[in-house]
């Protein structure tokens, strides 16, 4: 029978010291909940069979994890061993395999460590393999005490360690590979006869050692695997470590940084070689930026895609796509479901929302394009608006290719401007404009001679009077 490889993620911590309304595992490192770091590492290591033990605020965690992760509820927080007990039903159907128990608030566990530690665990034949790390300062961590055979004899917590044990540098990361059947065998034997009245998962290691089942260790290549967050200060430190790691990885992949001041990049984003990331740039989610671009300064790219050789200056975009060779900014906002075609130009103080803009189209400054379908090579003058909302419903505007929208044109949707048509500056267009036509909609201009001169003279006289009275 094929062995089942599964994982149980401990995610029931309240995080009171975070002073947050959400569970601790949902606190973010580089805009990504810590539990998603852990789950993504598991999936990258080809472990898809995952169970999360959730507690207070469980629905928030479930909403983030989605339907692909099994969840069980730990109603009372009675220790790590008790948390694993809540997954007994999940584990009982997988007794022929191996299960990784790990913490949902330790985001730096990585796929390579997971894969290699599993291989070592299976090859050893031990009932449990503890993922460990070597720390220059192990203060606060459980020490790994080994016997003459190199196997784990005990995991001793800081407060219980002897002076000799305190010198040990190898510590428990909080991640354990178990033969699933052996884990189930000792779970019910865990006791809570300690000062905290809790059931500790480390006691299961001691029980397996007593039974002669074998307890091995796997030393992670990076000591970051032990790092977690219990308060905002430690969460900040995790963000700083992760931020630097991502920037250095991007440098190795050919991305240029003139200065990293204010630059924050998601661990899941992709940036092509020869792209220059300028100060103040924030890239969130699974954004993809092509090669040869200039992004920034002071740009926010959120779950968006940008093609090659585009310049994105002081721009904010969310769930948008931008083609190649685009010139954009400064001070542009692309709202969700906006799509800008290749070689387009979007000037300063422009907002685009839920619209498709064709290739080589130019949108000048101070313009709003909302709920619109715009063709190729369209030119927008300054101050144009697609009027998409009547107070109750929203309507779309269609502008076909090669059209010219004059400055200060209002296009009151639903309306269509045909191919190659023009609208005169200052027009409010409420009816369709046929292809190749010029639409002019202006009120009749009347000039009243001398009116302004009289107004000016009256104002000057008033100012003089006020000055004399003072």
Automatic annotation (TrEMBL):
Task: State the oligomer form and interacting partners.
Answer: Homotrimer.
Q: Which organism is it from?
A: Neobittarella massiliensis (ex Bilen et al. 2018)
Its GO biological process annotations read:
cell morphogenesis; cell wall organization; lipid A biosynthetic process; peptidoglycan biosynthetic process; regulation of cell shape; UDP-N-acetylglucosamine biosynthetic process
Q: Which residues bind Mg(2+)?
A: 105, 230
**What cofactor does this chain's UniProt record say it requires?**
Mg(2+)
What is the top-level taxon of the source organism? Bacteria
The primary gene name is glmU
Q: What is the lineage of its organism?
A: Bacteria, Bacillati, Bacillota, Clostridia, Eubacteriales
Where does this protein chiefly localize? Answer: cytoplasm
User: Region entry Linker: which residue ranges?
Assistant: 233-253
* InterPro entries (alphabetical): Bifunctional_GlmU, GlmU-like, GlmU_C_LbH, Hexapep, NTP_transferase_dom, Nucleotide-diphossugar_trans, Trimer_LpxA-like_sf
Q: Where is this region: N-acetyltransferase?
A: 254-470
Family recorded in the similarity comment: In the C-terminal section; belongs to the transferase hexapeptide repeat family. In the N-terminal section; belongs to the N-acetylglucosamine-1-phosphate uridyltransferase family.
Name recorded for this polypeptide: Bifunctional protein GlmU
């Amino acid at each position: 029978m094929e062995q089942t490889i599964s994982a149980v993620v401990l995610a029931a911590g309240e995080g009171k010291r975070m002073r947050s309304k959400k569970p601790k595992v949902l606190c973010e490192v580089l805009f990504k909940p810590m539990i998603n770091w852990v789950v993504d590492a598991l999936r990258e290591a080809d472990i898809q069979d995952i169970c999360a033990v959730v507690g207070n605020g469980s629905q928030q965690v479930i909403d983030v994890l989605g339907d692909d992760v099994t969840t069980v509820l730990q109603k009372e927080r009675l220790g790590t061993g008790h948390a694993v007990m809540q997954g007994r039903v999940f584990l009982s159907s997988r007794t022929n395999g191996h299960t990784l128990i790990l913490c949902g608030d330790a985001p730096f566990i990585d796929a390579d460590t997971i894969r290699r530690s599993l291989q070592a665990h299976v090859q050893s034949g031990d009932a449990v393999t503890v993922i460990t790390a070597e720390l220059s300062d192990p203060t606060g961590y459980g020490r790994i005490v080994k016997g003459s055979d190199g196997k784990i004899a005990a995991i001793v917590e800081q407060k219980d360690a002897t002076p000799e044990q305190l010198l040990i540098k190898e510590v428990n990361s909080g991640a354990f590979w178990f033969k699933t059947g052996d884990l189930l065998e000792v779970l019910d034997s865990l006791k809570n006869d300690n000062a905290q009245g809790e059931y500790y998962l480390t006691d299961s290691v001691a029980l397996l050692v007593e039974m002669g089942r074998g307890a091995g260790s796997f030393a992670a290549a990076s000591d970051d695997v032990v790092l977690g967050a219990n308060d905002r200060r430690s969460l900040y430190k995790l963000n700083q470590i992760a931020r630097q790691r991502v920037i250095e990885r991007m440098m190795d992949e050919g991305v240029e940084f003139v200065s990293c001041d204010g630059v924050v990049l998601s661990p899941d984003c992709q940036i092509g070689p020869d792209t220059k990331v300028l100060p103040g740039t924030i890239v969130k989610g699974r954004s993809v930026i092509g090669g040869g671009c200039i992004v920034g300064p002071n740009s926010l790219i959120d779950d968006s895609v940008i093609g090659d050789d585009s310049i994105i200056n002081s721009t904010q975009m969310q769930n948008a796509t931008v083609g190649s060779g685009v010139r954009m900014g400064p001070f542009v906002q692309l709202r969700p479901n906006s799509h800008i075609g290749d070689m387009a130009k979007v000037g300063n103080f422009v907002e685009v929302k839920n619209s498709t803009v064709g290739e080589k189209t130019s949108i000048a400054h101070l313009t709003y394009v909302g709920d619109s379908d715009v063709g190729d090579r369209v030119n927008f003058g300054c101050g144009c608006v697609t009027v998409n909302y009547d107070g109750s419903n929203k309507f779309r505007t269609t502008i076909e290719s090669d059209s010219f929208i004059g400055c200060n044109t209002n296009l009151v949707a639903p309306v269509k401007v045909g191919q190659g048509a023009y609208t005169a500056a200052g027009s409010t267009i409420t009816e369709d404009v046929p292809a190749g036509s010029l639409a002019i909609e202006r009120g009749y201009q009347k000039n009243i001679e001398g009116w302004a001169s009289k107004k000016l003279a009256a104002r000057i006289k008033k100012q003089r009077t006020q000055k004399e009275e003072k």
